[in-house]
């Protein structure tokens, strides 16, 4: 490993690439020049040799002088920012704003601010400074400039965002945190679906007073070949997974011919048998059955009203839907990994792709139709939750990124970094680092495109919910870019324009009436949480991680008010399993520990003992009470005693499940994301069983929220 030169450091800093950082143990780490050069290459910057790095730096410094307007300007309402217009020295500029609603603003005054002109490509270029007014309306506008008498107009994106959301106005409430696929019923097809979610939400609101239900990401997975089990490694984040459809809830089900309806009923009976298995979910078998049924429904002639509604959905989703459906249709023929497709199909804009779409219109239409059905059932689910009394209803979850061979990675190649994976550096719980296998956004490309892909994504995931959890929201500030998939420690941080990404998030949330929750666990720069609070975004507090400056359990009154507070998280076992040390035993068995198991067990036991002592100190647990169910209740009471606006209860804790859903650092070494909901007796727990589950009712009663 060689340390980066001063010139390479300057180039890296100019592109937001870290050349040094502090790790989780407080050690100062210098990033190797090889890693820095690889990351810059993914940003389109050649720094492979000192000479090329010097040339790239000079080009970067001149780039802003070559463009008339900034690529994108993001401002908060009430701000009056300055921006630069570059033009031939001595020329004049006319500047105005075309508003999103069709209006126009021309009160964009030039400021008396002298900037020395620069010679660029043999032309002396000047810089004129203008100021935007503070009363521009919220939204996405066009910033326009005309230089002198030149008829050509330069245009960039202007985004005006709210100062903040207002989570202070939320009424304190509790809700479920669950993995939907694991929550099955006697009528679902071997996997939890949107009807199950609606049933659970309505019952929980009416009978238990729940205010929300937070679900795993429902993002689209590959539908050809083996379906990726992780909801956090989707094919697309903008679109959804049709495995969650309740077949019988589709309007056209009632119009099936008798023979076809009998076939669907047979498929349903075969799939429902899977709900009796508590060992592992079988997504591929479930999807094969559902796909056959959905293809029968797709061929039903809809009413003219349904045709119109479908057309409106397609119009709204536009080219993004067409690209997604095209990817899915090609995957049905050539497999889900687009990097292995014929070369002429690997570019979504290629003529061969257009030809495929024209030659296979029904195949593409089928996948558009599936997304419309999901849109309808998602809307119905949220409506059921709200009408039953939930204040928020469904809280959706946004994954960090996408599968490198998925639909988004294919369709959005212009804004994603090639040959790079998102991950995480080593920390206390994942001491070998993590490679999440996802291509990151290229921050420079996002700005060049006006953040269009991010805007479309955020708008889509907020459409049918009352809240949105952002997994690893720290990624909007900086992301760990892994350059060597075999070694997640080989990487560095890349900065993002958080004012733009968070601003757009806040704008879309205000328009949708959505509460935003940022998962801000892990290695966090102190100012980041302050910034998120300033923008009205709730944080996340997990009991096991909440410590004071001395490493002791944080007193409940000192927890954050503006956050979602829980006892556990999906990357740890349910609380009963955690109390038994299952996570240490599992990591040891899988070879994920970096210190002797005896030492790890001792540290883990001391940690649990500290929390048990805190419970007893608060009189939430007696000195003689060692019953696991009672300890789980006491831990949840501890969280309920915090001022946190939202208190989340893992459904697994309520029914006594102890198996973890996910073990970071593994793929198939453990059945991640395939554990169906079960009880302490090893029997499946179905939605219909919940109202009579005494363990569940005692836990919720203990919350007293």
Low-confidence stretches: none
Helix/strand-derived category reads alpha/beta
Strand segment tally: 24
Average pLDDT works out at: 95
**Helix percentage:** 25-40%
Assembly category: single chain
Q: How far apart, in Å, are the first and last alpha carbons?
A: 55 Å
The gross shape turns out to be globular
- Please compute the radius of gyration using only Cα atoms: 27 Å
Strand % is 15-25%
Largest sheet: 8 strands, parallel
Number of helices: 20
Spatial strand arrangement across the major sheet: 21-18-15-12-11-24-23-22
Protein name: 4-alpha-glucanotransferase
Family: Belongs to the disproportionating enzyme family.
Pfam families: Glyco_hydro_77, MalQ_N
GO molecular function, one term: 4-alpha-glucanotransferase activity
Write a short abstract of this structure:
This protein has 20 helices and 24 strands. With 705 residues, the protein is an alpha/beta fold. The model has no long low-confidence stretch (mean pLDDT 95).
